[in-house]
Write a structure and sequence with these properties.
Elements lengths: L10 H14 L13 E5 L11 H19 L3 E5 L1 E2 L3 H14 L4 H4 L1 H15 L2 H8 L10 E2 L3 H16 L3 E11 L4 E3 L4 E16 L6 E6 L10 E4 L13 E3 L6 E6 L11 E4 L5 H10 L25 H14 L3 E14 L7 E10 L1 H10 L6 E3 L4 H9 L4 E2 L1 E2 L9 E4 L5 E3 L14 E3 L3 E2 L1 H5 L2 H4 L8 H6 L2 E7 L3 H16 L4 E7 L2 E2 L16 H8 L1 H11 L6 E2 L2 H25 L15 H22 L3 H30 L2 H22 L4 H10 L26 H23 L8 E6 L3 H9 L1 H8 L1 E6 L9 E6 L2 E6 L6 H27 L1 H6 L2 H34 L1
Parallel strand pairs: 1-2, 3-4, 9-11, 15-23, 22-23, 24-25, 26-27
Antiparallel strand pairs: 5-6, 5-14, 7-8, 7-13, 9-12, 10-11, 14-16, 17-21, 18-19, 18-20, 26-29, 28-29
This protein binds one RNA strand of 76 nucleotides through strand 8, strand 12, helix 8, strand 13 and helix 11.
RNA sequence: GGGCAGUUAGCUCAGUUGGUAGAGCAUCGCCUUCACACGGCGGGGGUCGUAGGUUCAAGUCCUGUACUGCCCACCA
């Protein structure tokens, strides 16, 4: 006999065993030359600094489900794992570590600091990889990549140089978002806008000729020293007469022009706007348009510069207080009001972002966007489709992408300046000499935005720029699965660069999954303390329970509200499977089941479960093909628990225990076959428990004998699809349930055997029930079962009607008869309610005339059935009432 | 300001092409039935946010509206 499994599934050891086995046997390392349609997914590379959170767990689980399923379908499957160097995030982590030693990165110097980051990565960078493995992800570890590894760095340089030569990368002065804490530029989408309580100061600016004054409103008085104009709406009657005149900047008394531009909103504030081109994105635009002066008064550290006159050396916060006080003292502060407005924050460290003018590198995404836009949805589908508008809107309004970062950890920009002649040299490898002959070349100190390398991920991980076997075989990849929060950061940019360099979209489908929230719908975050740690869940409930929960909740386009109880609930399901397997193994004993033709079996219980199995197989495959993960999980759940365990296992017990050798053998084989196929269906969602059970099952000759991770998806058995048999089974189930209900509602102990008298509707019902007497007796716990004629029913008996078949249980005064009367009345009331509904339809001439024929027919049938049931039940009730009176 | 979701049983959510509302958990009753108490059996519980419209028929399609959440956006 196969080893007996323990009563409760214990995941820890099982998971460790299979993880080790999968990795050592390199099960998931494909050969590019192997047959089978190529199927590839790239992992959204987690940060090296990262710790696996529930969002990763969802993402990785869904990918793994598709990947494992694709293998079952015989495809040549590649899942490349890897991590992202995460420039700012990683640098921050290492800087924090340094701070504990009371050092800054400047104390170490650039080279030593970078060395330190690599060290850190050696030490901690594998944690996230181990966590990926702990989730059971079937990635190909032999092809592990890192955005800073040699190959990917080469790809980054190649892309940079080519884009530069094509004029798609350029260097220029521009107002960018500056994080004074990270000390670097940020891209537009790295800035998070948050509503913040602030103030709106109204300040009087006097005209230079002393004739008049104009009041402007501002939220940032500290930028006043940088003002180079006042702007009003050209048609604003209040200010029309001032346009073209000169005003004086308060305190500094520098003259500035009063200009007009349609941009100004007359309704807001005073309708007059002070323009500070160096410290506001809109003012920058106005400055360019009106040829204003550009005066920078706040430096990169947030300190007031010399240009700010008396405020030099103050922080911008100090300056704000002081200048407001000064203006008030001078009598030009007209008013202050509260204002809630959006303020940009750094998405990494949450410092308030300062618009800052500086020299930066840009990718001309305004030119690359069109192709990426046009590819959707013809070449790349985005699911769920409601993200389409968002994707289009972003690409239609895209600005050039600022890619330089003033940090040290990342891909250094491959650009050198000749100190002698000033020539800029952009090339992949460090130049030794300028064309002017000088060797005094200095590399640009900046590094590239982390997302720059991430944007190349789908082809760089496959070996580009070399024309590798992997690249030829697996580009474009099939599907990208990621959270919608990085649709701009990552998805859109991969599209742009993939198309530009590979001349083909990087993936055919993008599936954007939901955010995992806590049970109350809030974003999970460490600071709120509402995180569900996947590793803790794995330890407590097992990886399969976690994975199945996430899969079952992944309905398209909806956020997932997760709570620990859900995971605990699905652990029960894992255990249910485990015990169904134990039962099967016990029934098989030492014997290897003997194969027989499943299509030819005639016993209803087998025919029925095989029919249901076919349904489940079709449902699961179809659901996964359409990314309906939740439906796939539900189909499995329902089939295994509600059909296989609740009914089939109970149905075959009599056969297994006291059946003939032949029927026992058939039951064993069906049991074995169905369980095996369930294991295959569930394997992508619950890889560990299924693999463990699979290897405990005996092998039957000419069935697939390899391990489960390699098992093909079960072939269809069209001849097993038998809806008529399923309907017969449903009738029998109905009878069993009716008897159980009678017992339960009359407080008859379920174990107590009763006599059942049956008045069948017709001969075929009688034959069907007669053929399954044992089964009925066992599952409904009957003493015996007899067919009687209508009118022979004993008066003192409980009754029920199923599909016109009357079921009568004589009570012989054992129970409270009044209870049965109440029960019958309740049932009759229910019937009457249904009947009214149906009859209402049938009474409506419009319905009869316009509804589809099959709908009308069905209604009529139903009405008849209900009427029939009602009549029978009413008659039974009458007899019963009589009995009650006589008693 | 623009866009997108959601609003269905006490809770969390399903509900493919319009045809008499489903699951899990929770709850109540019964059961130490030899796979499983991480179990079995049975029950109760919803006029599908709201107001209209289309239709013989609407949770399902259309319009308005309320509330909640998210994303985008240069009102200083």
């Amino acid at each position: 006999m196969s080893e007996i499994l323990a009563t409760a599934y214990e995941p820890a050891q099982v998971e460790a065993h299979w993880r080790k086995h999968w990795e050592e046997a390199q099960i998931f390392t494909p050969d590019p030359k192997a047959p089978g349609e190529p199927y590839a997914i790239v992992i959204p590379p987690p940060n090296v600094t990262g710790v696996l959170h529930i969002g990763h767990a969802l993402n990785l689980t869904l990918i793994d489900v598709l990947i494992r399923h694709a293998r079952q379908l015989g495809k040549n499957v590649l899942w490349v794992p890897g991590t992202d160097h995460a420039g700012i995030a990683t640098q921050n982590v290492v800087e924090r570590a340094l701070a504990r030693e009371h050092k800054t990165r400047h104390d170490l110097g650039r080279e030593a600091f970078i060395e330190r980051v690599w060290q850190w990565r050696e030490e901690y960078g594998h944690r996230i990889l181990e966590q990926i493995a702990a989730l059971g992800c079937s990635v190909d570890w032999t092809r592990l990549r890192f955005t800073m590894d040699e190959g990917l760095s080469k790809a980054v340089r190649r892309v940079f140089v080519q884009l530069y030569n094509e004029g798609l990368i350029y260097k220029g002065d521009y107002i960018i978002n500056w994080c004074a804490r990270c000390h670097t530029a940020l891209a537009d989408d790295e800035v998070e806008h948050e509503n913040t309580h602030g103030h709106l100061w109204s300040i009087r600016y006097r005209l230079s000729d002393g004739s008049d004054a104009i009041v402007v409103a501002t939220t940032r008085p500290e930028t006043i020293p940088g003002d180079t104009a006042i702007c009003v709406h050209p048609e604003d009657d209040r200010y029309k007469h001032l346009i073209g005149k000169t005003a004086l900047v308060p305190i500094l008394n520098r003259p500035i022009p009063i200009i007009a531009d349609n941009y100004v909103d007359r309704e807001f504030g005073t309708g007059a706007l002070k323009v500070t081109p160096c410290h506001d994105h809109n003012d920058w635009m106005l400055g360019k348009r009106h040829n204003l002066e550009f005066i920078q008064v706040i430096d990169a550290d947030g300190i007031m510069k010399e240009e700010s006159g008396p405020y030099v050396g103050l922080t911008k916060e100090e300056c704000r207080k002081k200048i407001v006080a000064d203006i008030e003292a001078q009598g030009d502060l007209v008013g202050v009001s509260d204002l809630e407005h959006a303020v940009g924050h750094c998405y990494r460290c949450h410092t308030v972002v300062e618009p800052h003018v500086s020299t930066q590198w840009f990718v001309a995404t305004t030119k690359l966007a069109k192709e990426a836009r046009d590819a959707v949805p013809s070449l790349t589908k985005i699911l769920p489709t409601n993200w389409l508008k968002t994707y289009y809107h972003w690409l239609d309004n895209i600005r050039d992408w600022c890619i330089s970062r003033q940090i040290w950890w990342g891909h250094r920009i491959p650009a050198w300046t000749c100190e002698k002649c000033g020539k800029l040299i952009v090339q992949e490898d460090a130049p030794t000499k300028c064309s002017c002959g000088s060797t005094d070349l200095v590399q640009d100190p900046d590094v590239l935005d982390t997302w720059f390398s991430s944007s190349l991920w789908p082809f760089s991980t496959l070996g580009w720029p070399d024309n590798t076997e992997e690249l030829k075989r697996w580009y474009p990849t099939n599907v990208l699965i990621t959270g919608f929060d990085i649709i701009f950061f990552w998805v859109a940019r991969m599209m742009m660069l993939g198309q530009h360099f590979m001349h083909e979209v990087p993936f055919k489908t993008v599936y954007l999954h939901a955010l995992v929230r806590d049970a109350t719908g809030h974003k999970m975050s460490k600071s709120t303390g509402n995180v569900i740690d996947p590793q803790v869940m794995i330890t407590k409930y097992g990886c399969d329970a976690l994975r199945f929960t996430l899969t079952a909740f992944a309905a398209m386009g909806r956020d997932i509200r997760l709570s620990e109880e859900r995971i605990e609930g699905y652990r029960h399901f894992v255990n249910k499977l485990w015990n169904a397997a134990r039962f099967t193994l016990m029934q098989l004993g030492d014997t290897t089941p003997i194969a027989c033709a499943l299509e030819a079996l005639t016993d209803l219980e087998h025919v029925w479960i095989l029919h249901k199995l076919e349904e489940a197989k079709t449902n699961v495959a179809q659901a996964l093909a359409e990314y309906r993960f939740n439906d796939a999980a539900q189909s499995c759940y329902k089939f295994l628990w509600a059909e296989f365990c609740d009914w089939y296992l109970e149905l075959v017990k009599p056969m297994l225990q006291q059946g003939t050798e032949q029927s026992k053998s058939q039951a064993q084989y069906v049991l074995w076959s169905v369980l095996r196929e369930i294991l295959i269906l569930l394997h992508p969602m619950m890889p560990f428990v299924t693999a463990e059970i699979w290897q405990a099952l005996p092998c039957v000759s000419d069935s697939f004998t390899g391990e489960l991770a390699k098992a093909p998806y079960p072939a269809k058995r069209p001849l097993c699809i038998k809806p008529e048999a399923a309907a017969q089974m449903e009738f029998i189930q109905g009878v069993i349930v009716a008897v159980r209900t009678i017992k339960a509602e009359l407080n008859i102990s379920p174990g107590r055997k009763v006599h059942l008298l049956i008045v069948p509707q017709d001969q075929s019902q009688q034959d069907l029930l007669a053929r399954h007497t044992t089964l009925l007796q066992t599952l409904a716990r009957l003493e015996d079962l007899k067919f009687i004629q209508s009118g022979e029913q004993p008066k003192a008996s409980a009754a029920s009607v199923v599909q016109g078949c009357q079921l009568v249980v004589p009570l012989k005064g054992t129970v409270d008869l009044a209870q049965e009367l109440a029960r019958l009345d309740k049932q009759l009331a229910k019937l009457a309610k249904n009947l009214i509904n149906v009859q209402k339809h049938l009474a409506d001439p419009n319905f009869l005339a316009k509804a589809q024929a099959h709908v009308v027919e069905r209604e009529q049938q139903q009405a008849q059935e209900l009427l029939d049931n009602q009549a029978k039940l009413t008659a039974l009730r009458e007899r019963f009432a009589q009995a009650l009176e006589e008693a």
